[in-house]
Structure prediction request, 791 residues.
Amino acid sequence: MEYGPAPESAAPAQQWIATHSGAFDLYIGGVWRKSVAGETFETFDPATGQPLAAVAQAGADDVEAAVEAARGAQAAWWELGAHGRARYLYALARQVQKHSRLFAVLEALDNGKPIRETRDIDIPLVARHFYHHAGWAQLMPTEMPDYQPVGVIGQIIPWNFPLLMLAWKIAPALAMGNTVVLKPAEYTPLTALLFAEVCAEIGLPAGVVNILTGDGSTGALLTQHAGIDKIAFTGSTEVGRLIRQATAGSGKKLSLELGGKSPFLIFDDADLDAAVEGLVDAIWFNQGQVCCAGSRLLVQENVADRVYRKVRARMETLRVGSPLDKTTDIGAIVAPVQLERITSLVQQGQAEGATLWQSANTCPSTGCFFPPTLFTDVAPSSVLAQEEIFGPVLVSMTFRTPAEAVELANNTRYGLAASVWTENIGLALDIAPKLKAGTVWVNSTNLFDAASGFGGYRESGYGREGGREGLWEYVKVKERPKTRSASIATPKPVAKEVLPAANALPSIDRTPKLYIAGKQARPDSGYSIPVLDPQGNVLGHVGEGTRKDIRNAVEAARGAGSWAKSNGHLRAQILYYLAENLAYRSTEFAAQIARMTGQNHATAMQEVDLCLERCYFYAAWADKYDGAVHQTAGRNVTLAMNEPLGVIGIACPTESPLLGLLSLVLPAIAMGNATVVLPSERYPLAATDLYQVLETSDLPGGVINIVTGKRDSLAEILAQHDEVASVWYVGTPEGGKRVEHASTGNMKRTWVQDETQCDWRDSVVGQGAEFLRQATQVKNIWIPYTDEVSW
Ligand code: NAI
Ligand code: MG
Prediction:
């Protein structure tokens, strides 16, 4: 039977645009203002190519005004209190629902996505997000009593889910007491402008939400503005990189949700019909313009032909056409430039020898349309398999064994999501933890909910949106009065010239080496650096590590992969054993610290005692840092699991040479990471004395590697290394900037602190939840269940 067209009327959206005379200003401080420079640009309906409206292009003066408005509103918004903010968030949810038809039509017009999706998926999820976060606003005082808002947040969003991405950004920010300046994407500004009206309608205090339309240059101005405390970005990995570089050293918090090339794995025992239906959602939802689209089909070889036949048959039934037609499956590509990008990648794929298949269904001849496309015979290293196409293009490869499936799945720079299809729950739950992805859907795909975090591993970015884990992006620890100054009081000593005493035998020189893979290793440079006491007397020498030593240390850390798989109980036992061995030699360590730093023995002994306590603290946490089962909408168990990051590079503070080091290393290894540690540059002997303690504590080689030398240069080398997943740096602002700037190769996480602000002896700031969060990343595994049996 043929479908007849079932068009949704565009009239409400057209009327809304007409009431604004087809032109929109900027929403700043609760009022509509023209851009100071008076520039505008047009947004189009990609299905027809017709212009929809003119919107303002925000420039530097407008960014200035919006940041000022947000700053001016922030204190009052926070002081309004939890319940007050919850009321407003609830009102936003209600109002979005009341205008849901208008929002759905406007979104379909401006973006080109099918009305079926905007009506049934985008807009309901937007409302759900505001409801859910009204709850978090209410609960903040009891659930996060030690936290306060970050301040003014700059938010830059893409065009693929315009209103949904706005909700993901604005709801948690407002719930936690921040104010925002949001820039929608230049192709899809309209629903954000309608949302600004909704903010005005509910009487949201002026300046809490500011909407600036504009292109990438407006985004760049926002990221560079000194008055912004955090940037939240969703978009391409390329722009994510630019933003990391532009914000390096500025102290801004940063969360990035970037590209993906997510695998969709079908094992031979899967329900193949269900899997193929899932695949349709994975790659043809939203024309494939989905950061977590299941764009790489990996299918077990013995069922591949059957799967391909079913996919091709299903593709024949997909209707490409007008977004406003309720029977349309695939709407328009957002803009001509994206259509060109897709076309060009598809041509490259054909030139590389992959086999293309498209259905016989035709696309409309005007507007931006691209037919659903399947590629087989795709080589794992080809452009098609590696590049994010961001269109309705599925590429396929086969595997023979589960191990090969995991290897292929992880053969990508990205790590946003994955789908696993098998009827064998044991196999699914074996594969899911092995996939490098922030979300894993078992026998399902593209499930989202406000109660679950969403975000990437690797070059898909960092930070989470949604759920409790998403809230941390919008809070910081409450400022506390300092118990004592941690600043470096002692000036750097100058070496004395030492004349040998007459008749004295030369002392037996001991130059500690580096510690790599559980063994002492000579530095590659062959050079050593003297360690001086405060009077300038030489206490010893340490090796000067180089790039080569860092490479070896990272390789050793990568070789310690089984540590990540070991259980928390085992890791706890090793940390207790470490404490035992350290306690046995505590006097010796205290003496060394006292000699290096000039502190009295009692103070140094206190530092060692605190180290012992910290060993116990993280031994305690090693088997207790539980994940969660999120209560996502629908019938799912959504398991939020805390996973280690992999290799963490740790640059230690100058002061508290033993406590500073252990405060950072212990949480990292307790959570299953391996580390490359750069000890205090001035007082490294506490670290080198630690080798023996590590050796006697059953810690596997490679879990802690120690490279002495010039801390800031070595930290930058660690930040450049693509096998390092995160760098923690405690040092100077300049060194921190170098680390953040160098981190963009593999988009690694960074955690930078100013050493003059850290008091390691303070047990509230020197240890705790923030350290555990920095040492882990949350993976959400969705396992749907169905009512197969009715009682
Ligand atoms: P984009 O990353 O340029 O755009 C995203 C947002 O960033 C937009 O609001 C844009 O105005 C803004 N922006 C651009 N340059 C900026 C800068 N220098 N500083 C601050 N903000 C800036 O993405 P684009 O060019 O629209 O799409 C290109 C490709 O990126 C797509 O084909 C797709 O592969 C990928 N992409 C991925 C998305 C995701 O959700 N992961 C979303 C959009 C695009
Ligand atoms: Mg548009």
In short: DSSP finds 26 helices and 32 strands in the chain. The two ends are 37 Å apart (CA to CA).
